[in-house]
Design a protein that fits this description.
By secondary structure, this protein is of the alpha+beta class. The chain has a six-stranded antiparallel β-barrel with strand order 1-2-3-6-5-4. Helix 4 crosses helix 6. It starts with a helix and ends in an 11-residue tail after the last strand.
Length: 171
């Protein structure tokens, strides 16, 4: 089996694991293992655990994500599209969440406008090869190709979540 054959097989496997935008049993098990590793600070720094309050259950929901850095900012990308649970939960929580990679960081996730997503999506695909079968754009493609998928692919800028009295206003 050549390199292209094995890459094609991995792409099909990744798509099978997340059919209809939901993780199957194997993907859930693998995600739990990755959450444990990322939360403990194992693996690359860009691998984090996102913790957000479930909009229906009110319980903490944890999942592994890759942080993309672009022009000095950090971002999270929803590789499975705009209707995934974590995106809905983040929106319902007003963007408040926690990122873990060996330590906890309270954050506010701000959704990036569609017209500003393309360069972040390109950087994300360079860092997250597992997302490639879901976004279906070559990481080296022109920016116009990323602009075509931007509307269906939410991107969130990561900001520190500071209490209101620490915003520098002195009130």
């Amino acid at each position: 089996m050549g390199r292209d054959d094995s890459a094609g097989l991995l792409h099909r496997l990744d798509r099978w694991m997340y059919r209809r935008g939901r993780p199957n049993r194997l993907a859930r098990v693998m995600n739990r293992q990755t959450v444990l590793a990322a939360s403990a600070g194992l693996g690359p720094r860009r691998l984090v655990t996102l913790e957000v309050t479930g909009r229906r259950s009110g319980r903490r929901v944890s999942l592994p994500l890759v942080v993309a850095d672009h022009e000095g900012e950090r971002y999270l990308v929803a590789m499975l599209g705009r209707d995934v649970n974590w995106v809905r939960n983040v929106r319902a929580a007003g963007g408040r969440a926690v990122l873990r990679h060996g330590r906890s960081e309270a954050v506010r996730l701000e959704e990036v406008g569609v017209h500003d997503r393309a360069p972040v999506l390109r950087r994300y695909l360079a860092l997250a090869p597992g997302a490639r079968p879901h976004l279906r754009v070559d990481p080296n493609a022109p920016l116009a190709d990323f602009e075509r998928i931007a509307e269906q692919t939410p991107v969130f800028r990561i900001r520190p979540d500071r209490p209101e009295h620490e915003d520098g206003s002195g009130s």
